[in-house]
Specification:
This protein has 155 residues and is α+β, with helices and mostly antiparallel strands. It contains 3 helices and 4 strands; from the N terminus they run αααββββ. It has a 4-stranded antiparallel sheet, covered by helices on one side.
């Protein structure tokens, strides 16, 4: 009897999933109604308010130190920055999320200078409440997330 109950539940789940899929797949696609557009599917409302390149440097320094210590058992720190400049602002199609691409040279506690590529994203922070920063220090992309040589953090 217990086997039949499991079978019945699985069969019911498959039938319900099929009905849901048919409801979304069937028919022609239609445009959003006035109600959908104006009340809950309004789309992105970006105003291009992205802070200057210098405003992200403290965040990058803190996160670099945390990443090196926590994941790579290293006590490296960024001691300072020079040649901070903007590379591009929203270089892609109109209507995409505004981003300010920047580069700088960081003095790291290993005694060497390393290029830092980063971008600041409007509404890219915690739950979209503030701006966010994505960064990569050349030579310290140990997990190769922005490989090769931090290229994926540039426009």
């Amino acid at each position: 009897m217990m086997r039949f109950d499991r079978f019945a539940r699985r069969a019911a789940t498959v039938v319900v999933a099929g009905l849901i899929a048919a409801a979304f797949a069937g028919g022609n696609a239609r445009a959003a109604s006035w109600l959908e557009k104006n009340l809950y599917l309004s789309g992105p409302n970006y105003d291009g308010d992205v802070p200057a390149c210098e405003s992200a440097l403290g965040t990058i320094s803190d996160r670099f130190e945390t990443k090196e210590g926590r994941f790579w058992n290293s006590n490296l720190q960024i001691l300072g920055y020079e040649r901070v400049r903007q590379v591009a602002f929203s270089p892609w199609a109109r209507g995409t999320i505004p981003r300010r691409f920047c580069t700088a040279v960081a003095m790291v506690s290993d005694g060497r200078k390393h290029r830092v590529d980063y971008y600041i994203t409007e509404d890219g922070g915690e739950i979209g409440a503030t701006w966010g920063v994505t960064w990569c220090v050349v030579g310290f992309d140990r997990n190769m997330a922005y490989s090769p040589a931090c290229k994926m953090a540039r426009p």
